[in-house]
Amino acid sequence: MTSRPMPATPQEQADIETLSAMMGGNLDEHHALLLLRKHNNNLEKAASALLEGDTGADDPMYADLPGLEPINAPVIGPGPRTPPREPEGGVIDLTKDDDDELARALRASLFDQGTTHFGPSDRAPNPSWAMVPSNVEANAPSGMSQDDQAMSQAIEASLSYNIPEDIYHELPLEERVREGDTPVALRPTLPGEAYAALILHSLYFVPQFKHTIAQWLPLPEPGTYEMEPPRSGPAHQAWTILEMYTNMDLARMSELNVDASLRAFSTEPWGGPAERPGDVSARFYGRLVYAIENVLKYNNINNPERKHRRLMELQYGEHGAEPDDLSTHNLSVVRVNVGSSPDSNDLLSALAAEFAPPDTLKNKAPMRRHVIFEPSEVIAFELVRDSAPPSYDAAIGRKNERSTFRYPKSLYLDQFMRDSYELANQKRMTQRGLLDGIKDLEARKQKLLHFNDKDTLADLQSCLYYYENVADSNGDPKRAEEIKANKEKISQVIEKLQEDVKSIDIAIEQARGEAQTMLDCPELQQHRYDLRAVLIHDGLYGRSHLYSYVKQKGKWWKTVDYVVTEVRHPSPVSVSEETVLTDPTGLHLGAGPYFLIYSRALSPEEEDAHVDWPVDIKNNVKYNNKTFFSHLPPDVVARVVDPNSPPSSPIIPSTPSEYTISSNTVEPPESRDELMDTTD
């Protein structure tokens, strides 16, 4: 007659869960144990055999044994008032009349891995116990979690994507009427240029950038007194943005073609899903910043002194460098490595890791670190991710899921600036001390609650459950007194342990709160920047797989290709801002938010201030609106509302701008050949 195998050890149980996860949770634990031992507990060999079809079920040694629950599994729920089945190995006699009974019981609960626990189980629920597991959709394949479904759907969508099908479809004119104050979308003809269109679109909603562009005018050509729109160079690039932004403000069309500006910048296409959109976006943004900073200083009719205005380039250098060694650099895009750990998975922590890594804070002279010498009015961040998939945790039998990267609606740059670096560094050292103290408290809590990889509190509660519900005096007064005394002693130990743990938790919470707010002092809150735009990638390729969030007059708007919608949070008690700050799109494909644009905080009046665009460009846009209305069906025209005043110039151009009606409807624009009235 065959005998039943020994119960699984804790390591074997962890390996069993890993193998079961590989099979979608459908592998019998008994067979998995046999398979492990068949390969001398080598998990890799057992996994390979499992994938080749060997489930261990055909082992003749145990062929006649039923697939029972492991004999050392906890009892589920309160059991009968009888002692449990004796486990193999050491036997604990909790009913024996012995003066050292309590000590032996507690010792056994801490050391003997084969002891059966009484009372409710502390084992994690098995998804197979439910009719429909809680983390699996009803129509999903068996054993597939929501995370796995998301990954599967994303991969399926990626494989089915057809680049030739992602072509520019021009909407009928009646579907291109702008509704109220809904922002205008910018559309490129080529899908590979959608990323650049989103950057141009996003910068329109940065107040400092928009107002600066509106106030800029190029210098007249040498030897002339008349100004003509520039046709080449950085001035031409800036001029295309000026025209485009005037249209975005005043045009009554819901979307505009942006090819003119993209041609001016010689925009490189996004190569495909293998290329990070953030990388090509950073290069495009850098070229745009170079052009704008150049014309603002050297080709600006409103800046004859050629004063340098740090609109989009911050200046940085080394902290602690000698004056003779001091060298500074300009930077338009700050690259931020998105951390894989929760402690560094937010913008401020990632920046702190770059500017002040922990190894420079341990009571020794700080190394030379980069600090900001002069901040810019606008600052952009490229979020760079590790493209590796989530790791697999064998101990729990599932992937370590990614978490969304956090970025605040407002941030202060003071802690990274040269003038306040010393104060910030002192604060960080204090913060590091608090964090080290938290680690010590957590280690102390771990020692209180665990011993020899066992849950001390759970084992004490198991003992208490035994004396409260299982132990029977059988009418023996002395035995009844011992049971009562042991129950009181265990209760006192549990109560003391819980009080100590609660005290530690309170201390940890206080220290963590103090550490989190350590840098939140008035001295380090002089340079506040507010979030203006977020660009997000869902992980796939195409014009509809990149989108943006922008803020206009207190509302957040989402733009996907030509569709612009107001962001509304599904919960009535939450604001749309929460959706913008926590969007999980692209999480399972190593994607998500990839470009953030902040600018200096302004008052609501400054943010919403009226923009005074050049008169002639305004007149062209207003004329184009009338031309657009003339091509609409009468019933659509009757519903159109145009808040713009009539053109102020008596000279009406004969053709509209390239930013409104399509080329197959009207002739190309001639507005660039006309003189601009700069006196109005």
From TrEMBL:
GO terms for cellular component: cytosol; nucleus. InterPro entries: Papain-like_cys_pep_sf (IPR038765), Peptidase_C19_UCH (IPR001394), Ucp6/RUP1 (IPR055335), USP (IPR028889). Residues 184-601 form the USP domain. Residues 651-663 have a biased composition (Low complexity). SUPFAM superfamilies: Cysteine proteinases (SSF54001). Keywords: Coiled coil. Residues 643-680 are annotated as: Disordered. It holds the Pfam family UCH. The keyword Coiled coil applies. PROSITE patterns: USP_3. Residues 669-680 have a biased composition (Basic and acidic residues). GO terms for molecular function: cysteine-type deubiquitinase activity. Residues 480-514 form a coiled coil. GO terms for biological process: protein deubiquitination. This is USP domain-containing protein. It comes from Lentinus tigrinus ALCF2SS1-6. The lineage of its organism: Eukaryota, Fungi, Dikarya, Basidiomycota, Agaricomycotina.
